[in-house]
Amino acid sequence: QSENSDKSSAESDSETEVDQVSVYHKLLATLKTSPESESEEEEDESESEEAEESETEMDSKGSQETGEGDEGEEDKNDVPGQEEGITATDAAEQTLGQEQADGADTSCDTSRGVIEEFTDVKHESEFSLETNFMEEESGGCSADERDNNSSQAFSEDPFKQHMDKELQEKEVEKMSTLPKTSSQSKWPRLGQLTFSSILEKHKTLKADKEMDVKQLYLHKPLESTWPKVNKQFLSSMNKPNDPFFTPLQRELFCIMNMYQDLFYPERNALTNGEEIRQVYCLHALNHVLKANAQVLSNNAKRRDRKPGTDSDDYRDQGLTRPKVLIIVPFRECALRIVHIFISLLEVNDKRKIDVSNKKRFKGEFGSDPEEKPPNLKRPEDYEAVFAGNIDDHFRIGVAILQKSMRLYAPFYSSDIIIASPLGMRTVIGAEGEKKRDFDFLSSIEILIIDQADVYLMQNWEHVLHLMKHINLLPLDSHGVDFSRVRMLNLNNWSRFYRQTLLFSALQDPQINSVFNKHCCNYVGQVAVRNVPVIGSISHVVVQLPHVFRRLEAESSTSVIDTRFQFFIDNVLPEYRDAIMSHTLIYVPSYFDYVRLRNYFKKEDLNFTHICEYTKKAAVCRARRFFLKGDKQFLLFTERFHFYKRYTIKGIRNIIFYELPTYSHFYSEICNMMKATDNAVDATWTCTVLYSKYDAQKLAAVVGIDRTAQMLQSKKNVHLFVTGEN
């Protein structure tokens, strides 16, 4: 088996590929690797003040990381743009050692961080849509007989209706220029929904309380396998006549099946994460099976047609084969998705589907549970997010025919691509690079972005880069038969037909921006817009006053400088006195962190600092200095907390330089004060800086009612939490 990059070029008739070297290899060669990146703290957590927490998760060193000094200096990284390169690749180097599991020949050299990518070229003809026919899939009747039997049902199929809709140029012009009109609706489980569209006034869509399997238009064998696969999420409360979906799944699938764009910002890794993954996998697989069945059926019709017959009736595919792109943060997520696909395709234990390269896939995407020390103490949500193999640089093509699945398919022979943002970024490349490829994204019909909030902690620029390169006209024909290509693709209107499903754990302006600017499906968009009634401040169990200090900024861009000036002029002077020692300053943005760190150095303040780039030894030292009071201030970044979740001991004063991205981080940081010894008589404080542009984050912390009051008033707000509020 030859090793090839999965960003393969167009394949020739002889089914060979040109070996390509990933841009990622060159990128890795420029990075300075840390000798400590392979190991983590494994000291047992004890009652001692100086005991360090054991840790096996990532050192949060991203794909753009450079080395730092002994005290955790990051001066070399102060160039704008470097901050966004924080990813989870370090911890992945440990789990990648499992790639040799089960005898998988992975040809990996993890010591250098270089992974030779594998692409399956052996099964090209077996999975080719051009050379297979429907008889091989469903047997028996001829293409015409089958077409006559199912034409009426197929015409009502949402897939058929969506893909066969022929937009007019005037309609496309409207979608490119006119603003969207919106309407509101409330559903039993999803809550408050906002429907947006341009082409026509929105028709009130109601959630189906009950679903008949025939109304779902599920392709075989999904109508028989889905109830079995989803059984683990169905409770006894589900009605007997609805044995298919949970209430959440039913409403989500109702929107998905209508091919509307969807933004759901209430995904929770602990509660509904897997429930959501199941239903979008069903939708993606259903779409691919229908699309491929249509192509295979038309293959048979074309084969049987009389010479001279018009061939324009068989436009059933895009300019390139990939139809579904699923973006997930870690390899473990890709592993679970593929397992769901396999389960949905296997009708019963006797009819197992053939999965090529399954052993290799298990080795490269699986993990060894014994690698994790048993004495780790981390929050449940952390354990759920960082379960399994947390390497964040991967991409894999999946080709599917009804009875078989091909993993590691070349992209131009794939139906589904599963990748991380970093995995996509390194194959798409940058302008000016010789080896870059994004033609395979030209005809994506369903884009699924799961756990979008995690990408804010990795590199949001990778997501934006992907959105700029999706549904563009390809630079090469890649051997396509243009007589089979849909007119929507030839007209470069693919983006108006693409369905985007966006799942996140939170509302965020950057995520909202992607949904609003890059989702232009002609059917319209649906966004869940529930407001938090009770904020995370109610989960603070220590008694301390919370002072919310409002700063006035003219615009969302000027708020960065305004916040810094407000902090050094109005907040910091109050904490310079030695009596205000043990002050932790929580900084969400790495840019702000660098700015503050440089200012503290310039002013010769007694401080230490921890960020996502800080080495393990420097982290231990900084925590010890802060605990003992040798350092008055501790600058502390949000991403370090996201990837580590250490308990910082010795905190007596907290300053939230900006509200946290994750609202529950607010209560977590405040509750760290419980770890402060001999503090019964101490006066603890918590100060929060906010502006009118922080409305969403503020509501998640204090609740919507308090937020409305605080934004109307220009005075500082004092709240006292007793642990029962």
Give a quick summary of the entry:
The protein has 725 residues and is α/β, with parallel strands linked by helices.
Explain what the structure shows.
By secondary structure, this protein is of the alpha/beta class. The chain folds into two domains: 180-303 and 316-371 and 378-430 and 437-528, P-loop containing nucleotide triphosphate hydrolases (Rossmann fold), CATH 3.40.50.300; 536-722, Rossmann fold (3-Layer(aba) Sandwich). 34% of the residues lie in helices and 13% in strands. The chain is built from 25 helices and 20 strands. An eleven-stranded mixed sheet has the order 3-4-13-5-12-11-6-10-8-9-7. Strands 16-17-15-18-19-14-20 form a seven-stranded mixed sheet, with helices on both faces. The protein has a two-stranded antiparallel sheet with strand order 1-2. Helix 21 links the parallel strand 16 and strand 17 (633-637). The longest helix is centred in the middle third of the chain and has 32 residues, at 273-304. The radius of gyration is 27 Å and the shape is elongated. The N and C termini lie far apart (63 Å). Pfam families: Utp25_C, UTP25_NTPase-like. Residues 1-10, 306-315 have a biased composition (Basic and acidic residues). Belongs to the UTP25 family. InterPro entries: P-loop_NTPase, UTP25, UTP25_C, UTP25_NTPase-like.
